[in-house]
C-alpha cells in the first residue's frame, strides 16, 4: 500500500510538472468595425510560470525600430520591458505596474467560444473607454496580449468602445519554451522613468540647435559656438539635417525664459533661404545696405525684406511673442491661487519646409527684439518624426517677403509701408507652371498706444495679379488664457492685466499661426502679390507697423 501511495504521489507531481511546462504560441490580430486590420500581429508565448508578448515582425526578423517585448514572471509577480532601439542597442526595465489590477464586472451574458475554447466576459473602464474582455480558464493559464485582464485567465479577445481591439487568431502548442526569450539580467536594468524616456526619444530624430543661449542687447557680444548679429538680438547656427523618408513630419520647439527683460517682445525662428545667388546672410555679414531695397511710396527704403531676381529674404519658420518677464520676475508679484510658469514652450509643425532642409546643411536663427543686457534665454530643437501623416508631404517653398525687421539693430527699420495705398507689393517669376499653390502668410499688428494697430482690428487683403484672394481681420481674443506666463504684466485699476488685452493676431506668450491662402494654379512667368492693410497714423512718438511674412507652398 505504501509503495502504491508513493508511486501515485510521484506520478501526480510528474504529470503536474509536465502540465506546468506546457507552452503555447498564441497569435492575435487587430480589428476595427468587425474587419481584421493589416497590422503586425501580436504573438504571445505562455506557460503557467511565465509569458512573453512580442510581434510577428520580431520573429521573422523584419522588425521596425524601436520595438518592445514584455516578459512576465508569473511566479515572482514581476514584469520586464525590453526595447530594441536599433540593431546594436537594446534597453530593459522592471515595470512596477505590470501586475496592477483593474476592477472588472463579470457579465452573465455575452460569453462565446473562441477557437473552440469557452470564454467568460468581463467589463471595465480605462481612461473613459469601455473595455470588454473575453477570457478562458480552459487551459489553466493567466496571460493577456496587452496585460489587461491577466489576473482573470487567458485573454482571447479585447474590445474597446465596442468597435476595435485584438482577437485570438491561432493557438499552437509547443514542445518547449523558446530559448531566445529569457528574463533580462538584473544588472542591465534601467529605472522605469529612464527606460520610458529613452524609448520615447528613440522614436524620432532630435536635432539640437540652441541650448540655453542668451539673446540680448549687448554691443560687441560674441560666442564661439554660434553666430551673433544685431548687437546680440539675433543668433544663428549652421545645422546638419539628416536625410529622412518623405512621409516624415517636422516640428520646431523653442523654450524661452526672461534673463532680465521684463517686456513682451516679437520673436522669430527663421531659415536662411539659399535658393538664389544672394542670401540674407550676406547682408548680416556685410551690412544690410548691401541687400536689395524695397522702396515705399514716400521713398523710405527697407533692405532685405522682399524677393528680387537674385535675392531671397529669410523663411520664417515660427513667429512667437515673449511674455512679460516669465521666470526672472516670478517673485515680483504673489497672488493667491496663481503660480507663475517657469518658462514658455512653443512648438509648431513646420513640415512644409521638409524638402527645403532634409539632407542639407542649413542656417537656422532666432530673433528677439529687445534692449536689455540680460535679455532672454532660449533653447531650440528640431524634431523629425518618420512615418507620420504629413499634410505637406513633398511640398516645396519659395520665399517672397518678410517684413519682420529681425536686423533692427543692424539697419532694418520698422515696416511702415502699409501706411500707403499700395501697401506691400512683390513681383516674382516662375520658371514653370505650378498647381494648387498656397501662400503661407503670417501677420501681426504693432505699435501705437490705445489707438495703435496692436489694439485696433485691421483687415488684411491679399491680392494676386490684382485679384483679391483673401480678406480677413487677424485678431486674438484669448490673451487672458496666458496670464500665468506674465508675472510683471502691467495691471490696471479695473482688474485687467495688460497681457489680458486682445491684440492684432498675437498675445504675450504665444505663437502666431500661419494662414494658408489658396492661390490656385499659377502659370510660368511673372506674377505680383500685394498685401494691403489700413495701417494707422503715427501717434505721438509711437508708430504703428505690421510684421508680415509670406512664401509660396506648392507640390
UniProtKB/TrEMBL annotation:
Q: Which Gene3D superfamilies match?
A: 2.60.120.230, Peptide-N-glycosidase F, N-terminal domain
Q: Which residues form the signal peptide?
A: 1-20
Note the superkingdom of the native organism. Bacteria
Protein name, entry field? Peptide-N-glycosidase
| Entries under Pfam families matching the protein | N-glycanase_C, N-glycanase_N, PNGase_F-II_N
Record key words, sorted? Disulfide bond, Glycosidase, Hydrolase, Signal
* UniProt keyword Hydrolase present: yes
Write down the InterPro entries for this protein, in alphabetical order.
Cu2_ascorb_mOase-like_C, PHM/PNGase_F_dom_sf, PngaseF_C, PngaseF_N, PngaseF_N_sf
| Gene Ontology molecular function terms on file | hydrolase activity, acting on glycosyl bonds; oxidoreductase activity, acting on paired donors, with incorporation or reduction of molecular oxygen, reduced ascorbate as one donor, and incorporation of one atom of oxygen
Q: Where is the Peptide-N-glycosidase F N-terminal domain?
A: 206-384
Q: What SUPFAM superfamilies does this protein map onto? A: PHM/PNGase F
